From TrEMBL:
Domain HTH arsR-type: 3-97
UniProt GO MF annotations: DNA-binding transcription factor activity
UniProt-listed InterPro entries: ArsR-like_HTH, HTH_ArsR_DNA-bd_dom, WH-like_DNA-bd_sf, WH_DNA-bd_sf
Protein name: ArsR family transcriptional regulator
SMART domains: HTH_ARSR
Length: 114
């Protein structure tokens, strides 16, 4: 049995957070290197407050962690959460592979019976 780190609501928050292109871009950037919210805000054509809201959504989904360092809020990606998302998607992929294998077996068996 696979034990998920996230409950259903947590997975909903995770994939909802990743459904936005800006948030995916922020996650990619902070997985490479931690960045302050203000440095992230300079990269996008939107307000500082809008970037703060995106970071808050990512933080609630556990995709990033935010830490205050002096006057700055430093954001870094959470690799464990990315791995969890990968494992969830892998389980879905495996369901389809198993289904395709069963269909293939049925087709092979029907050819042998003919």
């Amino acid at each position: 049995m696979v034990v998920d780190r996230f409950d259903s609501d947590g997975l909903d928050r995770l994939f909802a957070a990743l459904s936005d292109a800006t948030r995916r871009d922020i996650v990619e950037r902070v997985l490479v290197t931690e960045q302050s919210v203000s440095s992230l805000a300079r990269r996008y054509d939107m307000s500082f407050a809008a970037i703060q809201k995106h970071v808050a959504v990512l933080e609630r989904a556990a995709l990033v962690r935010k830490q205050r360092r002096g006057r700055e809020q430093i954001v870094r990606g959470d690799v464990d959460t990315i791995r969890e998302a990968e494992s969830v998607l892998e389980r879905y992929r495996q369901l389809w592979v198993d289904r395709a294998d069963r269909i293939s077996d049925l087709l092979r068996d029907s050819r042998v019976a003919d």
